[in-house]
Amino acid sequence: MEIEVKSQSDNEMVFIVRDAEVPFINAIRRCAMVNVPKIAIEDVNIIRNDSAMFNEVLAHRLGLTPLVSDLDALEGMSLPEDDDWDVYENGIMFSLNEVGPKVVYSKDLISSDSKIKPVYDTIPLVKLKEDEVLNIEAVAKVGYGKEHAKWMPTTVCAYKQYPEITFNEDEEIDYDCALACPRGVLKSDRRSKKIKILDIENCTMCKSCVRASANGYINVGFRENDFIFRIETDGAMPPKEVLLKACDVLGEKADKFIQFSEEGGSK
Questions:
Q1: CATH superfamily, domain at 38-151
Q2: First to last CA, the chain
Q3: Residue 266: per-residue pLDDT
Q4: Is pTM beyond 0.90 here?
Q5: The domain 2-34+155-230: what is its CATH number?
């Protein structure tokens, strides 16, 4: 198997996997979405809320506020499988004490740990009118995406098989098929009498070009064992950390399965 990173930023990573199979690629995708630990607000104690927003809606909004969850932030925190995970004091404490008129933003959340804070300062939480008071205490804990969407480290985690475009040289060149491409993958070059492929990785295999070709000049398919994989996060974790942790989790699951098989199954 071969991996080639095409692009990488703080919140997005695109890479190509060659010589792999669909079950393996899909297993990585699923692990990245639901088995990678992330920090999110779990318990909310609303002491006073004079705003027009219901307590339940405000608590839900706090839970979905992305918190820094990189490896440094996760170090030393209890995981859901630990016995002391339910202990209130083991989480990260947040407080919010504001008086209107003002818009309360995520930056107003005060954390007990300077490493763990909202990823973005400008997320609006609630609007307070004149003399309205908001007093909240909250606890953030580590969780998994399989339990709730607030613990999902990825906003996009998807793959597609690598596109492949071929031309039927026995037929006359059909320049109209290039014009039908909605993503600008193809370009008609009448001077050199051929159709150029500009960016095959941008092809979604919609086959608009195939349907536009009257003589079947163009064919769109895919490479069976090559994939384009994209991971995007909400900024809580770098996409590379998500990928590496997902691979570690998948490896641990494989080891448990092998051990289970060697021992002849559970009694």
A1: DNA-directed RNA polymerase, insert domain (2.170.120.12)
A2: 37
A3: 58
A4: no
A5: 3.30.1360.10
